[in-house]
């Protein structure tokens, strides 16, 4: 299958990219981000876009792909709600329209654990991500999945790892054993994305238990 991955210079996007490049089910990857990832691989090419909101509908460079793994995202910390809405909801929906929702393409949106589908909770980031999930699911793709991942253990040789992951690296084995329902590996996340893109799922919201259930299939 041929996949688009956004946010390849971020922790989740880079990890998913590295794992997809190792997976024989993936034949081609297009990485879309603001800057180059520096990754060199026969299956990989890049499309640099300074602002996803500048993308036009049915962008020809995004044609012909079987799935999009939308891993780009920003933290809500210190960000005003309208700015966070722009950088989360508007950019994601614009990117989906740039692909041009197609019956042969699956769209996977990495939202995160705690996302609020009701769009009425107290946490702004959870409300915005809930609305993003809901409005993506309404688009006529082959399938849309909201990926509610928790803590993810980075892939080998990742460059773009969040600082607090680096500081807590020595604690990860203990935390993983103590809270197994909170953690997944980058390989499990990428492998499950590929699986759900091919085989679908009965529900559009994917939790950590679902990721682990299909990662080995």
In short:
The chain is built from seven helices and nine strands. It is α/β, with parallel strands linked by helices and 217 residues long.
- Structural class, judged by helices and strands? alpha/beta
Strand content: 15-25%
Number of helices: 7
Per CATH, the superfamily is: NAD(P)-binding Rossmann-like Domain
> What CATH architecture would you give?
3-Layer(aba) Sandwich
Question: Residue ranges: pLDDT <50 for 5 or more in a row?
Answer: none
| Rg, alpha carbons | 16 Å
In CATH's first tier, which class applies?
Answer: Alpha Beta
Quantity of strands, as a count? 9
- SSE order, one letter for each helix or strand: EHEEEHEHEEHHEHEH
What average pLDDT do the residues reach? Answer: 90
Q: What does the main sheet amount to?
A: 7 strands, parallel
Which strand order does the major sheet show?
Answer: 3-2-1-4-5-6-9
Domain module count? 1
Q: Span from first to last CA?
A: 16 Å
Q: List the quaternary state of the chains.
A: single chain
The global form is: globular
Helix content: 25-40%
Could you characterize the architecture of this molecule?
With 217 residues, this protein is of the alpha/beta class. Strands 3-2-1-4-5-6-9 form a seven-stranded parallel sheet, with helices on both faces. A two-stranded parallel sheet has the order 7-8. Helix 1 (11-22) packs across helix 6, helix 2 (81-99) runs parallel beside helix 3 and helix 6 crosses helix 7 (208-214). It has helices at 11-22, 81-99, 124-137, 163-167, 172-178, 186-199, 208-214, and strands at 2-6, 28-33, 44-48, 67-70, 106-110, 143-147, 151-153, 183-185, 205-206. The protein is globular, with a radius of gyration of 16 Å. The chain has a single domain (2-214), classed as NAD(P)-binding Rossmann-like Domain (Rossmann fold, 3-Layer(aba) Sandwich).
